[in-house]
Specification:
The protein is an alpha+beta fold. About 25% of the residues lie in helices and about 20% in strands. The strands form two sheets. Strands 1, 2, 3, 5, 6, 7, 8 and 9 form an eight-stranded antiparallel beta sheet that branches. It has a two-stranded antiparallel ribbon with strand order 4-10. β5 and β6 form a beta hairpin.
Length: about 280
Amino acid sequence: MKRKRVFATLAMLALLLSACSAAAVSEPSSAQTAAVSGDDAVASREGLIFPIGMEVPFNGKGYLAPMIANEEVYNFPQTNNVTFGPGARSDWHTHGGMVILVTGGVGYYQEEGKPAQIIRQGDVLEIAPGVKHWHGGSAGSTFAHISVNTNPERPGVEWFDRISDVEYRQLEADGFTDIPEGAYYAEAAKWCREQGILTGTVFNGNTPMTRATVADALYRAEGSPAVQGSAGFSDISAGSAYANAASWASASGVMSGYADGRFGGSDAVTRQRRRGLRR
């Protein structure tokens, strides 16, 4: 069964590698970028639309810029621009109701008793009065939204517990945060994540997959078996995170090193090397 799992993993990785290679070697149009490359993530606040305003005491770097105050001429509710740095988030809280308009980056929203949702630029959330929730940036992206405070007759916020670092890392969000819905490789990435073959919340589809990543994924698919001895690659120390994976891949004949004795863990897996993996 494990060998079948490795073959299935090879098939999935071949699809994911084609996605990474296509993103790395081509210059897509703006329409292709929106549909395929997963560029929703924002590396820094300079990539956002509105000024970030003043720093506020979120769990991590957060900012608030008032946009519209409650007023009686147009009867428009209080509106703010809220920005979270990567990994920053609010505490659990309730208020009189809010509409969130996501303007940049990738983040999380979670209501009490429900799994976290991945939210991206263009998403709109309606938060009913009194619903306990939190929201914030994903680990790999600055995140910004406009918050429209509804029901001005119920002002104020009631704050509760913080989202700990452990809770944040264990979010039950379904999938990588930077893969757009409908991407042709989305199901393959989801399967690898659900099987524990690929980990984390950021796929980085614009970055070529390395030999170390592929070796580690195949090693996980095999069940991370005990490794007897070392393959002796000159560029892998005993304490390397992928030392066992590289030794297992070499001993199993799945991957081999270079003629000069290196494994080349940081080297990108090219199409030619992908053909070698399939043999």
